């Protein structure tokens, strides 16, 4: 029942995006000592959400979905210089990104819980 509401679908997509971004951040941190490793990140959720209404493939291999494109980690811009071994991971930046992803996930859960509570109240089921 809830899956048909656009707000709920958007909250679910936001939670999936935050989870995928957390995975990319974890890979960056795990490779922080790997020579030549370039930090990666996902496009922000807003660009992912805007892409959801674009063209859609009708069969496998036709068009890649916006979800598939948005879930691909892209090299993050290097904000300064890479380390002498060519690694561009900054643990400080990754910590900030991790906090941002956690906040995005918490917001998605809050939206989902609020909409669920609102629907239950409107149906007369407050518990």
TrEMBL record:
Pfam families found in the cross-reference section: Flg_bb_rod
Record's subcellular location: Bacterial flagellum basal body
Domain Flagellar basal body rod protein N-terminal: from-to ranges: 20-38
One CC-aspect GO term: bacterial-type flagellum basal body
Keyword vocabulary terms for this entry: Cell projection, Cilium, Flagellum
Protein name: Flagellar basal body protein-like protein
Lineage: Bacteria, Pseudomonadati, Pseudomonadota, Alphaproteobacteria, Rhodobacterales
């Amino acid at each position: 029942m809830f899956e048909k509401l656009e707000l709920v679908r958007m909250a679910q997509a936001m939670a999936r995006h935050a989870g995928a971004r957390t995975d990319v951040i974890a890979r960056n941190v795990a490779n922080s000592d790997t020579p030549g490793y370039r930090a990666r990140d996902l496009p922000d959720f807003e660009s992912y959400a805007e892409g959801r209404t674009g063209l859609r493939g009708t069969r496998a291999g036709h068009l890649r979905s916006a979800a598939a494109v948005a879930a691909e980690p892209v090299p993050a811009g290097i904000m300064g210089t890479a380390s002498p071994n060519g690694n561009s991971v900054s643990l400080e930046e990754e910590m900030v990104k991790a906090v941002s992803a956690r906040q995005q996930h918490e917001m998605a859960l809050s939206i989902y819980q609020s909409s669920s509570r609102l629907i239950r109240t409107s149906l007369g089921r407050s518990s």
